[in-house]
Design brief:
The complex is a heterotetramer, with one copy of chain A, one copy of chain B and two copies of chain C. By secondary structure, chain A is an alpha/beta fold. Helix content of chain A is 22%, strand content 23%. By secondary structure, chain B is an alpha+beta fold. Chain C has one domain: Mth169, Chain: A, CATH 3.30.1280. The chains are: A alpha/beta, B alpha+beta, C alpha+beta. Strand 2 of chain C pairs antiparallel with strand 2 of chain D. The complex binds adenosine-5'-diphosphate and magnesium ion. Adenosine-5'-diphosphate (ADP) binds next to strand 4, strand 5, helix 17 and strand 16 of chain B.
Chain lengths: 252, 772, 79, 79
């Protein structure tokens, strides 16, 4: 029962006839720290990125929104727990419900789960330590706006940097997600095997990233935005942003 | 709430001598009250006044045309990196707090040094750390190690600064007294340099950041009974807890405020918090300052003036604002939801005046407090132990019979083993600037437009493109060498840092150092300090790497005695062209391996074994003469290497340090980490000539200085050897890259190591030891 | 008045901290410990009418203080 | 038998977590909350003689489970 995102995804502002340069919003919470990296990545790809302050509530003019990594509100209580109540998150829920494209990265993933825009939750790494290292990502479903440009079978080498990246959802939810093609990326070894050894945090089913049932909201723990230039170690992360741009162009 | 009477006992508890107390009486012409005594005691502590080390530090080279702000003038020195850009960097210790509470001690150490950097108006872009612990087989040492690393990680990760390099040594001399030195580097435009001076009489003084609590009061070693009614525990003060989230906001707000031009002066509240920041800014501004403590945000009720003035609560800043522009402070700090308070103003009296409940509780001459602390020329005497360690005869130990086992043991020795257990807990990719990650000789980061602090909205250069810059950094300091020969050891610490930079392709810009030593009242320990500083100074001059600042941490001892004298040296260098960035691992099958520098010292074939890792691991000895350091040879070696790198010849460069040539070769084969559990291993076939009179252990594991292993494409061999001959540099082809083994032939003898097992013992030893 | 809130991981959720503490205790020779669960403890100092506060604090627990996907909570009141 | 251990930051020690939760509750419009302290909760499932276990668990709290430099703990027993 797999449908491609292009069939199901509702209209976005990009459809209303903007040029081919897309405008990305990058949310800024107190404690966000990969916000600059997101802007940097989008600019490397030749598109526009704008910061959106957590007290703002205007997102309508944007083509897509990135929820960046960091430690919003110090990650006190639970990662992402406090950020989800900021004004911009109310608007983001609306934006997403209207079919806007949203990509959460690291802390952004945690926030989107806390906000209920994505299923499941992220808990402490099983090592109980922060993990900073490059990992390989295998793409599970190539048929979404976030994965369509990723070459079939290609592994992406991208860094992780998190202390609470262990994805959890109950079995029922997981089966549903699997059936819907909502599991987008899994941790893999250098030769593409999805197995425990490759998993930096203990996530169930080695999940690194997922999307919602509508396939317009996705998130992952690794940092594709920190892997968009060979000079800093890898440009594999570009594939995710390219997917979205390609998808938005096709819709435009 | 009456203040206690000043008694000799109280004076002693404040670590002030009778002479110092007399000097206080002379300076202020009356008896100080309790608060004033506290203020003097912290301002005249070694930490703030450098009273024991100032005369020594004068020997450091501090100026070159590139130095924009020299050492000692502000919170950190600043160096020009061209195109209107500059870097601010500094190292600082948090040894004692980390011994008490490793996690919080380390976090607050990182927080403190980051504040020093953004106080200069710079945006911090990376952090580095230098750590020393006792031996890892002790559970207590593991607890400290685990806590410190987690703390450094926590602060940097949350703040959002990549921790890109560092070093860790384990030696029993650090048992009970770990060293935690944290370094931070920031970047800014020349016109963005901020000053910590209270300028402009009448200008308001703001306090920004979280409320003041009784944090860190224990440092003042004070226990008076009737100061407050609180519990004894609270009087002693609480361990400082770092809040990286708060500091991140504080930095963003400060940089935003600095961009408005409303700031006349800015100073962080570090050691001795409000005391130090008020009197230092007044002293620098040639002004006075008056503050009202009732306006200072306080975490609990009933804090005394003494406590408020001496609190070391973290993440607080003092900002002097041009009169009439107060609203900008309020607007920006409200935007970031940060507490602020206007607590006083700049005066023309030269006095630091502190009021509480309408009464003056301190009225002291600011400049005298800040700049006229007593200076001591301590007595120095060559330590007696040196006679014995120097007399050690290497002939008394047999040569190695089993280099295969010995190299395995060295690779698995925690000081040499990979520190991935450490840096995998540090976010080193945030800010999209890290080009060479931890794991090579030096880290390399780039400076790009978003590395810089904000510009004012109307700045003419606001939309000008920024040309990317590449900075390399390394921190080094082998305490055993310094213990065995403080002067040579000091030189080597600097030479090794410079060599690591050269291996990455960088030219040194400047140095910052942390002097971790024992009690300066002990003439032998002071001699160590004096000699080491002389060595550091000579070497820094030689490499044209001026000292831009640093930190002194004395009284590092455990019940068994002082730590090995440990200056840690962090050096920063510049790489002009990203194509020149070089890493330490072998890359291509068929590349030739060259050794730059002599395999052994022909004059003294044992040289390099004294003080070596090999001697410690195999013979449990910390003895002998450590290696000599020939500064001019080193310098020409680095210059030549950079020349070859610039010509595009060099595929890898790795210096020989702990463990000597064999360890350097092994690391070049196995240290390339591609991803989690994915290292790239590549073999090497080495053939070394036997040196007459030399021994195998000296050749393989000796640590003589000035040696670098490089790999090049075969087509360049003639070119390199030819140029080396012209330069008079010893360079030899010693092997080729390739295969799945490391094989070393020495004359007729041949030794082999499988890469998998070499890698396993090097890469996983610390991880395995920490699994408990 | 105080509300003491104890938040624990749901049974089905991995509790690596509990495991780590259990191992450490065993390692250090403490016997008799069968299992360990690690959670969070929050103490709220409150002012006002308890009857009015109770439903609010319940709500806060559900919305903010705990994450129902992975955690259970319980509240103890103290005057 | 269960030992429930509640570990809280010492009074004089900064509790940034508590502050953050307090601010969040205020922002969300929950009134009447004066202060928040955030600590840890441990539940030990035990087997054996309580009198013998008590001093051991006390010791474990001091040595391992809490950090006496910055935290206080208390133990509640349940049969
Ligand atoms: N505490 C640490 N934090 C970050 N990186 C570290 C730490 N300790 C060691 N490293 C990294 O591991 C590598 C090897 O360190 P070291 O053995 O000290 O190198 P060298 O002998 O060349 O100075 C370097 O890249 C260094 O930056
Ligand atoms: Mg090196």
């Amino acid at each position: 029962m797999s449908t491609t995102a292009t069939d199901t995804a509702p209209a976005t502002p990009a459809e209303t006839g903007q040029g081919s340069k897309f405008s990305f919003g990058v949310l800024q919470f107190p404690g966000s720290n990969s916000d600059q990296d997101c802007v940097n990545a989008i600019e490397v790809l030749g598109h526009e990125a704008h910061y959106v302050w957590h007290k703002d509530d205007q997102l309508g003019h944007l083509d897509a929104v990135l929820v960046p990594g960091g430690f919003s509100y110090g990650d006190y209580l639970r990662a992402g727990a406090i950020a989800r109540f900021s004004p911009v998150m109310q608007s983001l829920a609306e934006f997403a419900n209207n079919g806007g494209w949203v990509l959460g990265i690291c802390n952004g993933f945690q926030i989107l789960c806390e906000a209920g825009l994505l299923p499941g939750a992220l808990i402490r790494n099983r090592s109980l330590q922060f993990r900073s290292e490059f990992v390989h990502l295998a793409t599970v479903n190539h048929g979404t706006p976030f994965t369509r440009a990723i070459p079939e079978g290609a592994l992406m080498r991208v860094p992780v940097a998190h202390g609470e990246g262990c994805y959890f959802a109950d079995e029922t939810t997981l089966s549903e997600m699997e059936a819907n093609g909502q599991i987008l990326w899994q941790y893999a070894t250098a030769d593409g095997k999805v197995e425990d050894h490759a998993n930096p945090n203990g996530s169930v089913r080695h999940i690194a990233g997922i999307c919602n049932a509508n396939k317009n909201v996705a998130a992952l723990m690794p940092h594709p935005e920190r892997a968009c230039q060979g000079l800093i170690g890898s440009d594999d992360g570009q594939w995710i942003f390219r997917s979205l741009i390609e998808h938005m162009s096709a819709k435009a | 709430m009456s203040e206690p009477k000043i008694t000799p006992e109280l004076i002693r508890q404040h670590n002030l001598t009778d002479e110092e107390y007399q000097l206080i009486l002379e300076q202020i012409g009356r008896e100080p009250n309790m608060t004033e005594l506290g203020i003097f005691s912290v301002m005249w502590s070694e930490h703030c006044s450098y009273k024991n080390t100032r005369p020594l530090l004068k020997g450091f080279p501090t100026r070159t045309p590139k130095v924009l702000v020299p050492a000692g003038e502000e919170n950190a020195g600043i160096i020009d990196i061209g195109d209107g850009l500059a870097v601010a960097f500094k190292i600082e210790s948090h040894n004692h707090p980390s011994a008490v509470e490793p996690f919080q001690g380390a976090t607050t150490g990182v927080g403190g040094i980051i504040r020093d950097i953004f106080t200069m108006g710079a945006r911090p872009i990376c952090a580095v750390n230098s750590l020393r612990f006792g031996k890892l087989d002790s559970a207590e040492v593991r607890r400290l190690f685990r806590g410190v690393v987690a703390g450094i990680g926590h602060y940097g990760n949350c703040f959002g600064i990549p921790t890109v390099a560092g070093e860790v040594y384990f030696d029993e001399c650090y048992e009970g007294n770990p060293l935690v030195n944290a370094f931070c580097l920031g970047v800014l435009r020349h016109e963005q340099i901020a000053r910590g001076a209270a300028k402009g009489v009448g200008n308001p003084v703001f306090y920004v950041g979280p409320a003041t609590g009784r944090d860190g009061l224990a440092g003042a070693a004070f226990a008076s009974q009737d100061l407050t009614e609180e519990s004894a525990e609270q009087q002693r003060g609480a361990v400082q807890v770092g809040d990286p989230f708060m500091e991140k906001l504080c930095m963003e707000a400060c940089l935003e405020l600095l961009a408005t031009g409303a700031v006349a002066g800015i100073q962080d509240m570090g050691a001795a918090g409000l005391t130090c920041s008020t009197c230092e800014t007044a002293a620098r501004g040639g002004t006075g300052i008056e503050i009202e403590l009732d306006k200072v945000p306080q975490r609990g009720p009933g804090m005394s003036p003494y406590e408020i003035m001496l609190s070391e609560s973290q993440e607080r800043m003092l900002i002097i604002v041009h009169k009439g522009r107060e609203d900008e402070v309020k607007r920006i700090f409200d935007k970031w939801d940060l507490p602020w308070a206007e607590i006083g103003h700049v005066t023309d009296t030269g006095q630091m005046v502190v009021k509480h409940h309408g009464e003056i509780v301190a009225d002291l001459p600011a400049a005298k407090l800040a700049d006229e602390a007593p200076i001591y020329h301590r007595e120095a005497a060559e330590p007696a132990y040196l006679k014995e360690t120097r007399a050690f005869d290497l002939n008394s130990i047999p040569d190695t019979e089993d280099p295969v086992t010995d190299l395995n043991a060295l690779m698995a020795w925690p000081t040499i083993a990979s520190k991935n257990w450490v840096y995998r807990q540090y976010d080193y990719t945030v800010r999209n600037g890290t080009i060479v990650h931890p794991g090579s000789d030096a880290a390399v980061v780039r400076v790009k437009a978003d590395s810089l602090p904000l510009l004012p909205d109307d700045a003419p250069n606001r939309n000008e493109p920024v040309s990317e810059k590449y900075l390399a950094m390394s921190v080094d300091g082998n305490g055993s060498y310094v213990y065995l020969d403080p002067y040579e050891g000091g030189k080597i610490a600097v030479a090794e840092a410079a060599r690591n930079l050269a291996c990455s392709g960088a030219v040194p810009l400047g140095t910052t150092d942390n002097l971790n030593f024992g009690n300066p009242h002990n003439p032998e320990l002071f001699w160590q300090l004096k000699e080491a500083v002389r060595g550091l100074a000579d070497a820094c001059s030689h490499f044209e790497a001026p000292v831009t600042g640093g930190n002194v941490s004395l009284y590092n001892q455990n019940p068994k005695g002082a730590i090995d004298p440990t200056p840690t040296v962090a050096m920063v260098g510049l790489i002009e062209d990203p194509a020149h960035i070089t890493t330490q691992w072998f890359k291509n099958e068929g590349d030739l391996i060259l050794l730059l520098g002599d395999p052994v010292d022909k004059g003294d074939v044992f040289q390099g074994l004294g003080g070596s890792a090999y001697l410690k691991v195999k013979h449990q000895l910390k003895k002998g003469l450590p290696p000599r350091c020939d500064l001019s040879k080193e310098k020409s070696l680095h210059d030549a290497l950079r020349g070859w790198i610039a010509q595009g010849v060099v595929h890898s460069a790795h210096d020989c340090s702990e463990g000597g040539l064999a360890v350097a070769l092994a690391e070049s084969c196995i240290s390339r980490e591609k991803a989690r559990h994915t290292s790239e291993l590549i073999g090497a076939d080495i053939h070394l000539k036997e040196v007459p009179g030399s021994r195998l252990d000296a050749l393989l594991f000796g640590e003589i200085q000035g040696r670098i292993v490089i790999s090049i494409s075969p087509v360049y061999l003639g070119k390199v050897l030819g140029q080396a001959e012209i330069l008079g540099l010893p360079v030899e082809q010693i092997g080729t890259v390739g295969g799945q083994r490391l094989s070393i032939k020495v004359g007729e003898r041949s030794f082999e190591w499988g890469l998998e097992s070499l890698h396993d013992s090097w890469f996983n030893t610390i991880d395995r030891m920490m699994q408990d | 008045m105080k509300a003491k809130i104890i938040i624990t991981p749901k049974k089905a959720v991995l509790d690596p901290q509990g495991k780590a503490v259990l191992n450490a205790l065993e390692h250090m020779g403490y016997e008799g410990v069968q299992d360990v669960h690690v959670g969070r403890f929050l103490e709220l100092e409150l002012d006002g009418d308890r009857a009015a506060l109770e439903p609010k604090i319940e709500e806060a627990c559900h919305r903010l203080l705990s994450n129902p996907v992975i955690e259970d909570y319980r509240i103890e009141w103290e005057d």
